[in-house]
Amino acid sequence: MSWWLVVGVLGAVLLTVGIGGRRWAQATLKLLRRHAGYVRHSIGVDGFELVYQESGRRDAPPLLLLHGFGGDSDNWVRLVPLLRRDFRILVPDLPGFGETGFLPGKSYSLEAQVARLKDFVEMLHLDRFHVVGNSMGGYLAAAFAATYPERIATLGLFNAAGVDMTTRSPFYDAALDGRNLLLVRSPADFHGVLELVYHKRPWMPGYLRRFMAAHRILVSDDQDAIFQEIFGERVWLDEHMAQIKAPTLILWGDDDRVLDISSVQLFKAGIPHAQVAILPACGHVPMLEKPAETARVYRAFLAGVADGSVPAAAAPGPATKAPATSSHDVPA
What we know:
Blueprint: H1 3-16, H2 21-35, E1 39-45, E2 48-56, E3 62-66, E4 88-92, H3 110-123, E5 129-135, H4 136-147, E6 152-160, H5 170-176, H6 187-197, H7 206-218, H8 220-231, E7 248-253, H9 263-270, E8 275-279, H10 286-289, H11 291-307
Parallel strand pairs: 3-4, 3-5, 5-6, 6-7, 7-8
Antiparallel strand pairs: 1-2, 2-4
């Protein structure tokens, strides 16, 4: 029986005894976070009360997980239980999202978010750490790794933004028409987001779907402003990817309708020492859609780093072109 089906059955039982859908949705998310071992913290960064979750072992190497546009720390709840025995895992709600929230008048540009991330890791005394980002979070992770290469032990780019794509995705086509398919302004839009980001849209209990849609609708104007600022800028990584020195894993779902898989070729050209893994029958959020496979590929990558079979860049220098490849350097 699937996790969501168990949650749905329990929810139906509780609804019959008078516990409302909103309260059960909140309880469901709390249960997911408990399963991930999340412990909630907050810290002041640039005027934000930045909320982050911590899991794993305090004495283990730190691993920072960065969510994508419209997401929050809950985007990682299915992957964290598979990694937490080996890491001190830190999962922030990035400024503008989740419990950290949006502050009017603040900049949400890539440079501003990189600066906040630097403040965050320094406040936690993280001199060197592993970092993984999905989508917008991948863009931020790559930019941080290029700006502060000495701080990054390894870099994971999971369906990351930050480069163009040679084949236009459905999301890209809609964006050219002035429509952001990741914004939720109605319950139907939330259904559309699930269809867009998953290879196969997961069944989700109705009470939870309505709760999550209501939140996304409430913050849609703020998220639209953030999107326009971040992705209205020039593509920063084009000129800076060669500065990434950390061993890098580029992981992609083969059915990404947000950021087409052709983006992999450009990341691989800009980070020629990177390893590539493609997950079949997977969409834009591999850590949610295929957490076990994602964890297995990530662990294989880290094992390669440990035994020296996954190289880092020899030294920063001008960007070099590598042949486009569809080979899977890390088993997927």
